[in-house]
Amino acid sequence: MARPPLPLGTWGTVTTRKVRGGWEARARFRDMDGVTRLYSRRGKTAGGARDALTEYLRDKAAVDREGLVQDTSTVSDLLRAWWEIKEPDLATNSRDRYQATMRLHLRPRLGHVRLHEATTGRLDRTIRAIATEVGAETARQARNILVQAFGLALRQGAVTTNAAAGIETVKVEHETARALTDDEVRRLIQAAREWEAAGHNSSRPYQREILVSILVMLGTGLRIGELLALRWSDLNLAGDAATITVTGTIVKGRRQPLPKTRASERTVYLPRFVVAALTAWRDSRRIATEQVFPSINGRWRDPSSYRVHFREVRALAKLPDVTPHDLRATVATALDRAAGVDAAAGQLGHSSPAVTTRHYIEKLNMGPREAIDVMDSYHDNLGLAA
Predict the structure, then answer these.
(1) Residue 141 and which of 14, 159, 173, 232 are 20 to 30 A apart at CA?
(2) Which residues, 6+ apart, have CB-to-CB distance to 242 below 8 Å?
(3) Whole-angstrom distance, CA of residue 236 vs CA of residue 242
(4) Backbone angles phi, psi at 254, to 5 degrees
(5) Can you tell me the distance from the alpha carbon of 306 to that of 296, in angstroms, rounded to the nearest whole number?
(6) Element holding 39 (H helix, E strand)
């Protein structure tokens, strides 16, 4: 039976022999092209020649493997290598979530495990533990990270199979989309007017503006971050086809030049009630700012502080469970029923109508209205009419 070849980047037994002027050490080394070659180095003593050859081969293996993850690398090493490739393509919010999942859940549980020890069973048990102890959404993201990271290890030859691909899919129960009723919309708008007109006890400058921004969300389906990132230069309020172009979002108090996804960078038409509200809002501003909805100090308004005000408004409206996400679902549901899911997906900036259907369109659990004519025709054809 033929002797199995050396693993790539390794060498066999080092032998020494006496030569003119000293000693020579020799060993066979399998290069990264798969060819095994004989290498040698000389020294004044046998030990010196052996040390010289060993050092040379060790350096050669390191150079050949530079940038590659090895089967003896740890999961932490793999995550670090994968992150260097992945990070530049992520939006800020996604970057923060990925980093938190790796730092808080993957590295503590798997960080010191070698890649050749990371079996599908071990990885699957880890993900199931995260789902139980932390939550399904975090577990789903952790699984996604491992699948991508071990895919990198597979491409780099550190493993022969993607052990993470066999992890059982994590099922996340999403809340059912909820569209506001006509009465709820009226109550929310009235509450916004009352909230703006109410006094406050703060000794600092205090901004009480929320009605126009709610109307914009109800008329466009914009996310809060997209809403607060609007600049007057993004608006075209003239003519019969007024538009808003979504070109950014707010993350941690800063305007990010790209929205949540590439599909989110879009232009949407404005209904007349939104045009009227924005025009009046622009004309009432005593200090001009590039932001449509600035903070009290004229900077970008943070979504977290906006949500505080929104919760105060919904409390006035006696709608304790309503969120800005519901306003977005209200727009999606109205468009779906009038023009179809593709129109709703385009309005919300989704790359796939499936996302819109799953998360934003309220299901009525009603049969189609067309069933009336179909079943009447069926009954008539049976000749059973009295």
Answers:
(1) 159
(2) 235, 236, 269, 270, 274, 275
(3) 5
(4) -120, 150
(5) 12
(6) strand 36-43
pLDDT digits (tens, 9 = 90+) for 281-334: 998 887 788 999 998 888 899 999 899 999 999 999 999 999 998 998 888 888
Cα end-to-end distance, the chain, whole Å: 91
> What is the domain-level CATH number for residue 101?
1.10.150.130
Contact 267, 241 (CB under 8 A): no
Helical packing angle, 341-348 and 324-339, nearest 10°: 140
Residues 6+ apart with CB under 8 A from 205: 296, 297
Q: What pLDDT, in 10s, does the model give residues 1-14?
A: 567 788 878 899 99
User: What is the rounded CA–CA span in Å between residue 357 and residue 338?
Assistant: 14
> Within 10 Å of residue 69's Cβ, how many Cβ atoms?
24
384 in helix, strand or coil?
A: coil
Domain annotation covers residue 173 = no
Q: In angstroms, rounded to a whole number, what is the distance separating the alpha carbons of residues 302 and 295?
A: 8
Work out whether strand 254-256 and strand 235-236 pair parallel, antiparallel, or are unpaired: unpaired
Q: Within a domain: residue 327? A: yes
Residue-number span of the structural domain to which 32 is assigned: 15-64
Please give the structure tokens belonging to residue 266: 């879009």
